[in-house]
Amino acid sequence: MREQDAGETAGRRGGVIRALLGVERRLDGAGPTEGAVSSGKASESGGEERKAAVVRVVAADMAPALQRRAFRCARDELAAMPHFPRRLEPKRLALALKKEFDTAYGPAWHCIVGTSFGSYVTHARGGFLYFSVDKVYILLFRTAVEPSSPIDDEQTNGL
């Protein structure tokens, strides 16, 4: 009975996440995907070719609007990589996300990108997102930056 309740709860949560992201739920022959985000591209025949990028949120402490911005930035950057998915450029993707969030939401954003990594970080409240786009995992988080005091500046300058 508990397993059924957990499955139903996970289904509802997945539906909420899909609704927040503007994600469609697709049914393939093997079963449903967690979240397929379609980016339409016009094909030569004039129709629309759909290439789905599966976005999965692993853990989040971030407003939905910021999450959507991170997903959009990651998808756009991955789509711009000429040899993706065979050749991932993690530094390029990490830099793009960091710059995007530093510019839009202030300094001290950090980004880790890869297919396999471990981490243990401290983040500012409301500034943590760990997600994947297809098989690429992205950890985006913000740390608190405290302004230095004048006394600290004088000690560093040798005064």
UniProtKB/TrEMBL annotation:
Keyword tRNA-binding attributed: no
Any one GO CC term of the record: cytoplasmic dynein complex
Record key words, sorted: Cytoplasm, Cytoskeleton, Dynein, Microtubule, Motor protein
Biological process per Gene Ontology, one example term: microtubule-based process
InterPro entries recorded: DLC_sf (IPR037177), Dynein_light_chain_typ-1/2 (IPR001372)
Top-rank taxon: Eukaryota
Subcellular location: Cytoplasm, Cytoskeleton
Main location: cytoplasm
Stretches of the chain forming a coiled coil according to its record: none
Family classification: Belongs to the dynein light chain family.
Protein name as annotated: Dynein light chain
Organism: Eragrostis curvula (weeping love grass)
